[in-house]
Give the backbone structure.
Amino acid sequence: MAKMIDGKALATKTKEALKQRVADLKNKGITPGLAVILVGENPASQIYVRGKEKDAKSLGFHSIIDRVPATISQEELLEKVKNYNNDEKIHGLLVQLPLPKHIDKEVITLAIDPQKDVDGFHPVNMGRLFMGDPLMIPCTPFGVMRMFEEYNLDLSGKEAVVIGRSNIVGKPMANLLTMANATVTVAHSRTQNLPEVARRADILVVAIGRAHFVTKDFVKKGAVIIDAGMNHLENGKFVGDAKTEEMDQVVSFITPTPGGVGPMTRAMLMEQTVIAAERRV
Ligand code: GUN
């Protein structure tokens, strides 16, 4: 039987630890402020944003959810970003993705002050991470690294395979694993013999956005499986990228969905907002 990596419990612990830091900041007259801009009514985005708001409020943050219609122009959205950049009460700012087609995501990301970019998506933050001197780290890979720490999973010298090369998860994940001295392979949709490549992994991180794509054929005995996939099925079920049930007897550690990577992503967003506020002291 594989051991479950309980992301929900670790997220709760992470947020508990933040409460003292928030109290210390408040004693210095600073309340961590997080602004989230949600454009339009994408159902998944609405769920994610509600979760972020709940966490921010329960930690006593100054929390703003700025809901704007999908018809907002790029200029108007840029204006909003600039206002939050200049707002002293706001330490973390994020624009929920995806954005409507008439808005250029890169232009919006570039407009966010890198010091407030709690998503870690700004090219300055991506570049600093790439160079081994991170300021803000994308929250999902950051949360996955915390899971390795919590479960004392040593990465040094290990074979790590990341399936997926997105800017949000795959690329930063590969970088963080390299910084932790793993030997990293980034595999993706064009990789030949993907199951064979994945079977090299002591640590397999999956982030491709395809429900149940990774089967037991992809895993080596004793491997650690981190499933960062979030797929909403038509029947309303929420599943990862890996068929975790059928791997249970083969692997050593595995993340459940829900209750695995997702809660840690949210917790790390809160932590980075606290870090951004602490930098202001
Ligand atoms: N959409 C899905 N995940 C994310 C995320 O982590 N940040 C933002 N801004 N949008 C998202």
